[in-house]
Each structure stands twice: as structure tokens, then as C-alpha cells.
Request: fold
Amino acid sequence: MTEVPSGSEREGRPVVQAIAAVAVILGVIGVLWAQREIFPPQDASGAPAACSKSTDRLPARYVSGARLCEALNRPDLPALLGTPGEQAETASGSGDWITMAGGTKIPAPDATVTLRTYSVKLSASYDRLTVGQVRGLTDGARRTTVLGHPAVVYSSPTVSIGFDLGGGKASTGPGGTARCLLVSRHAKDDGKGTFEIAIWRQDDVLPDDTALERVAEQVAPTVPGWDGN
Reply:
């Protein structure tokens, strides 16, 4: 099952959608809008975009989209990505349920920040899958750690969507590659929750794993639910 982008995400240029399990697991679909000028930054003054109002429908025991956006939309995010001259152009979060085959509902809060070069998505998962299980189901996954927590890095293809403004038609095709890092919230890979950070580039160039891991090391410990022990 694929999560539907929130209204605020649709207004932005790129969108990443987390894919749920056997589907939950793994995928990221990046939507790269063809006409960047049509979707200007949220703040016309030229200041970095602030997090837009979040639509959160999850109980308080789950992290909200607003909190995820707050954690991700940090002043040093451009520097962590290796693009220090840029700034956030759009920032949004949402907290809602996704429905799996069979009717099971899983909480799926997330947040996305876009810059000129990169887009970054932070999501929290409560599906009880361990990092090891995800690695076993993903081709080419690389085992790593984030501040001592088990993690895995893998690739996911993106889809490019273009719009013919004159004809009112949309076209789709292969996009670039997103790099994704899934990390356990706990120092043990106990299946009690994970955070995932995905980055992809607007120019379809392969993202920098070093940048991905820098972002993960700084952002993950600031998200409610991270266990620093």
C-alpha cells in the first residue's frame, strides 16, 4: 500500500512516499514536478521555509508529523547535505494511518523538507519489523550503525511526473534513485520501532551516502522516541 501525500506535500515540487510493509518496508517514490516555477517556496521573503501546518490524526503515543518536521527542518540541514548555500524551500509533516491488505492499520507519520538540490524525508515506523529483517528483504542493502544503533542503507527508485500545462496532461517515467537509511530506535534491534531518513536529488544524480549518514546522526536523536542508551 502506498501512502497518499498530504495536501501540503502536493503543493511542493518533490514528494516522497513511504511504501508499507512487505511493502512497508522499503520503498520510496520520489515525485519530481516538471515546472519548478509553478511551486514557489512557502516564504516569498526569501527566508527558509517554516514547517507548514501539520495534519495529525494519530494518538499522542505516536510521534506527530509536526514533531518530525521540527526535527528535520533544522538550520544546519543544508550543510549536513553538503549544500551550505541552500535553504529549505518547503517543509511539511503529516501523521495518519495507512491500511494494509487485510485491513490492518499502521501509523505512518512523516515529514519532508525540500531544497534546491536535495529533498529529505523523515518517517517513523511502528510495524514491528527489525532492521535485520528489512536488510534480508532488500537487494544490495548495506549494514551500518547510527550512534550505536543498528541501521541499514539501501536504494529505492523514484518516478518522475511531468505536467503539460497547456494540454492539462501528466506523464510519468523513471526518475533518479533515493538513498534510504533505516535505523532502530533502540540500541538493540528489537522490532520496537524504527526511523527512516531518505534523500534524493532533483537532478537524478545518485545521492551522497555520507550526507545521508550525517543527517541521520544529527536528526535521529532529536526525534521523540529515540533511546539514547
